[in-house]
Amino acid sequence: MELTGAEIVCESLLKEGVDVIFGLPGGAVLPFYGALSGYPQIRHILVRHEQAAAMAADGYARATGKVGVCTATSGPGATNLVTGIAGAMMDSIPMVAITGQVPRPAIGRDAFQETDITGITLPVTKHNILVMEVDEIAQAVKEAFYIARTGRPGPVLLDIPKDVLAGDRRPFDWPESISLQGYNPPGEADELQLSQAVELINQAQRPVILAGHGVLISHAYSELKELAEKAQIPVITTLLGIGSFPTDHFLHAGMPGMHGMAYASLAIDSADLLISLGMRFDDRVTGRLSDFAPNAKVVHVDVDPSEFHKNVKATVPVLGELKQVLNQMLPLVERKTHVEWLQHIDTLRAEHPSLYIRQTDELLPQYVLKQLSDITDGQAIVVTGVGQHQMWAAQHYAYKEPNSLITSGGLGAMGFEVPAALGAKVGRPDKVVWSIAGDGGFQMTMCDLATAVENNIDVKFAILNNGTLGMVHQWQEFFYDKDFFATVYSGNPDFVKLADAYGIKGIRVTDKTQVASAIRQAMETPGPVVLDFIVKQDEQVYPMIPAGESVNEMMEEPITERIF
Amino acid sequence: MAQKHTISALVENHFGVLCRVAGLFSSRGFNIDSLSVGETEDPSISRMTIVVGGDDSVLEQVVKQLDRVIDVIRVIDITQGAFVERELMLIKVKADTTTRAEIIQIAEVFRAHIVDVCPRSMTIEVTGKNDKIQAIIGMLSSFGIEEIARTGTVALLRDSAVQ
Questions:
Q1: Distance, in angstroms, between A114 CA and closest chain B CA?
Q2: Contact yes or no for A147 and B70 at CB 8 A
Q3: Fewest CB atoms within 10 Å of the CB: A59, A182, A489, A519?
Q4: Which of A267-281, A370-384, B4-18, B85-99 comes out lowest in average pLDDT?
Q5: Where do the Thiamine pyrophosphate enzyme N-terminal TPP-binding domain residues begin and end (chain A) (predicted)?
Q6: Contacts of B55 in chain A (CB under 8 A)
Q7: CA distances for A174 relative to A128, A558, B85, angstroms
Q8: Greatest pairwise CA separation for chain A in angstroms
Q9: Residues of A with CB under 8 A from a CB of B
């Protein structure tokens, strides 16, 4: 049977198990949409800005573990995807972006809506392909998905000229298998690396596990738990590793880094071994490298060898896929206890109550998150934007399950909160999904409330509204002599009226006593809901290790009340 | 003088791969001294020979980041091994009746070829290792060098060194 290029794309997507695409059509990609309308098995969710398509595909991928798919037209449509693609690249998210391109004869002549999107996305994609022949489409799609989801996942862009999509009918030839000469994702670890790593683990007196995104990518949660419990090693989860280990487990020792809990940073500081599992020693975690974990050897397990010694020199790097590596390690790791070390960490926890929320009548943003955590029993999927609210969401919500915090870590893209939440809910309709937004980021992508309404995507949007670009304002407070230039928003809309304009229920909360009931009311209301929490301004995120500093310069919240 | 490393990478001859590699070097701040690329015995595969400046930790990152690129098949740091390296240079030097003979003699010493002569200049083609190229540039500079075009280093491991 002979099919057009566009139909071959659709058939290929079916072969890859795709059942939802986020996108916005345009001239160059119209033939694809023409074919897609005849494929009801693939749900298309029409967004209002292509950035939302990419970020929704990202949120979908993080919530489900499947490859997120987004599509846009050429030129401005494609360039609008770039932020979302870059975010997926930084956080290792499996994504395939399909863009239409101007017809082949027009390429390179500054045609209408032409951009060299493959050139533009070279540094922010794991791979990209400009598909110049109909016969290449099936192979390209298969390769794209394979590359996106294996090894260290990442975004892959497929750029397909309009005449390739529309033209020549050709037979659909789905390749049985593909082999890429230059791509061989690691599996099990080398015996020598493994035995050296295990030796260090068995000898350590003050070991700490740093669990990162790799644990979630590899679905290695039970292996991590087994390792931690067998050798009684405390587990510190990075921002993107949150959920890989239950927050209420006695061995969980918080989140490290710039806004991590003080006890976590102090534990790392006095550790004699760091067992780094699928985390990359990002600068938000390490601070000044020369003072990071000064007393510790490092076992670094990762699927991407370029991360070894990139930021932190590993004593023993272990190359392999995390789940397999942990399974190799477990029988070799000795069952033991570290009673004194764990007691030391408990003492640190008591002396540095980083999660303490001040008793006050003012409506604190931290309080909202704590209430949300209690009311949802840590069972919701929490999607955040970027900024102060993001840090508070990471700190004060008690995440119990994997893939329950969805947040733009490496890129830190504001506006993530709305579209990523939509993608997460589409992927996990069985879960309660809360989008925690700053009033700054919310305004970047709020146009896609329309997408929520049109598709009845039941996300609860909680805006922590302090009328400021909060995190930037905090930096100006601490480091720029309180010169609050360009960080105060005086033109915000009435978010409840905005919700109403979209036909959504809006609830304004101005008082601490209304918080719990507002949250419950939102959850009992079917469909999307917008909550506008008017929170206290000038709150700072504590603790804070300023950029380029170390735990020695950590700033903790000045606590004036008796809390012991 | 910073350490220099010669890296040989086999890449799939796909559209954009040269761009991706060049972009990778610039975005990661690696210092490219020279880059030369051409087809191998298999026309679907090209060999890139890259001379990079930097210490061992920089080199380690260069090799690993290159290896990460899907279209890059294999990366070898051949600096430490026994390898054959060559570069070709065309050099146009000022030459008149008084200097022409001496320039020709210098060219002979370096086993270079004269490929163009005109009343006021002479173009010489030289092949050799980096130090030979530098040496002939040194010898000719006093006559006045008008233009230089260099290919960049290409290199192959000696068979005796291949494991």
A1: 17
A2: yes
A3: A489
A4: B4-18
A5: 4-118
A6: none
A7: 19, 63, 44
A8: 77
A9: 118-119, 122-123, 126-128, 130, 132, 147, 180-183, 304-306, 308-310
3-state secondary structure of B4: strand
**DSSP β-bridge partners for residue B9:** B48, B75
| Contact of A56 with A62, CB cutoff 8 Å | no
Taking the C-alpha atoms of residue A429 and residue A94, their distance in angstroms, rounded to an integer, is 20
Q: How far apart are CA A21 and CA A18, in angstroms?
A: 8
In the predicted structure, residue A560 carries a pLDDT above the cut 90: no
CA A171 – CA A174 distance, rounded (Å): 9
Amino acid at B83: F
The fold of the B84-155 domain, in CATH, is Alpha-Beta Plaits (3.30.70)
Nearest CA in chain A to B58: A310
Contact B11 A309 (CB under 8 A): no
- Interface A-B, measured as beta-carbon pairs within 8 A, has a size of 43
| Contact assessment for residue A403 and residue A39, using Cβ atoms and an 8 Å cutoff | no
Q: Name the amino acid, one letter, at A423.
A: G
pLDDT of residue A222: 97
Domain ranges of chain B: 3-80, 84-155
pLDDT number for residue A559 = 73
Mean pLDDT of chain A: 97
Which residues from B are below 8 Å from A304, CB to CB?
A: 68
- Give the per-residue pLDDT at A563: 52
pLDDT for residue A564 is more than 50:
no
Tell whether the model's pLDDT for residue A562 goes beyond 80: no
Residue A564: CB atoms within 10 A of its CB come to 5
C-alpha span between A308 and A317 (Å, rounded): 6
Cis amide bond preceding A543, omega within 30? yes
pLDDT at A42 over 50: yes
Same-fold call for B3-80 versus B84-155: yes
Rounded CA-CA distance B140/A250 in Å is: 76
Q: Quote the strand ranges of B54-82, DSSP E.
A: 72-77
Question: Which residues of chain A have a CB within 8 Å of the CB of B15?
Answer: 130, 132
Residue B22 CA, chain-centre distance (Å), reads: 15
Q: Which of A118, A181, A308 sits opposite B16 (nearest CB)?
A: A118
ipTM of the complex: 0.89
Mean pLDDT of chain B: 92
Residue-by-residue DSSP string for A41-64: TSEEEE-SSHHHHHHHHHHHHHHH
Q: Do B57 and A309 touch (CB under 8 A)?
A: yes
- Residue A311's closest CA among A291, A286, A294, A293? A286
- Burial class (CB within 10 angstroms; exposed 0-12, middle 13-18, buried 19+) of A558: exposed
Count of other CB atoms within 10 angstroms of residue A19: 13
What does pTM read for this prediction? 0.95
Residue A185 clears pLDDT 80, i.e. is over it: yes
Nearest to A392 by CA among A540, A241, A243: A540
Note whether A32 and A98 are within 8 A (CB).
Answer: yes
CATH class of B3-80: alpha beta
CA A476, CA A470: separation in Å to the nearest integer? 10
Q: Which residues of A have a catalytic role annotated?
A: 50, 112-113, 162, 471
